[in-house]
Amino acid sequence: MLGPVILAASRSDRMRRLISAAPVTKQVVDRFIPGETVDEIVPIVQELTSKGLELTMDVVGEDIATPEQAEAARDAYLALVDRLKTLELGTRAEMSVKLSMFGQALPGGHELALANVRPVVEAAAAIGTTVTLDAEDHTTLDSMFAIHEELRKDFPQTGCVIQAYLFRTEADARRLAAAGSRVRLVKGAYKEPAEVAHQQKHEIDKAYVRVLRILMEGEGYPMVGSHDPRLISIAQELARQAGRKPDEYEFQMLYGIRGDEHLRLAAEGHRMRVYTAYGTDWYGYFMRRLAEKPANLRFFVRSMISKG
Question: Which of these is catalytic: 184, 213, 271, 289?
Fold first, then answer.
């Protein structure tokens, strides 16, 4: 399987330098990350929402080494909130954050990340939107869930992400599937050991369906993060069985992947939210997109060959 190899490369400084220097890389990266600044991303927001789509915005960047960098990440999100305010989109454009950007891995990181993310969540609530806490590798999750629980005391609309490939996730889903919760389910995109996560695709898919059933039958708001046509059909059927109306759950897919499917689901009356990332520190995000789906890797390799 190439996925684990690519995920390992996502942490390699040597591979970062090699791929970043390739002339074709920017062209391919632009497929997944359509801008580097807030100004560049605003036309994308306007275009997608004009087509009946919703968005969740992610300022990419993970390798935070100092408290000052964590504060800069906070400020980048606050600048995004200011721009979203002028667009008056309400919950049609929310935000996703990785707590590693807010200093979670630094000394005293739990408290630092909470202190940095809170003003972003507060600012989002003030303009009528919200924030979802992205899941990262399994060692960070207890901290993420604790911060999520703390934020929901004042901002109950704050969402979080769970990953189907982790053995712990069914228990997490049962705990989180309560009234008022917002939970995005994804397969998982980090290199995890066999002691904590399923390794085979068919096992991950089965776990995804089990967890999705828990969320659909719960009292919260499920967010179905998948590009897999079979899982999308299963999600629709589970929603029907649970008696959910189209506005009582949503689909989420990445910008640059299956754009026609985004529009099809929206045209059928489903809530369809596009995960749209921007920023200059794109490497880790880009490599996980390659690892998640063989077609993404083939696209990158073909582009490199055609430009070689």
Answer: 184
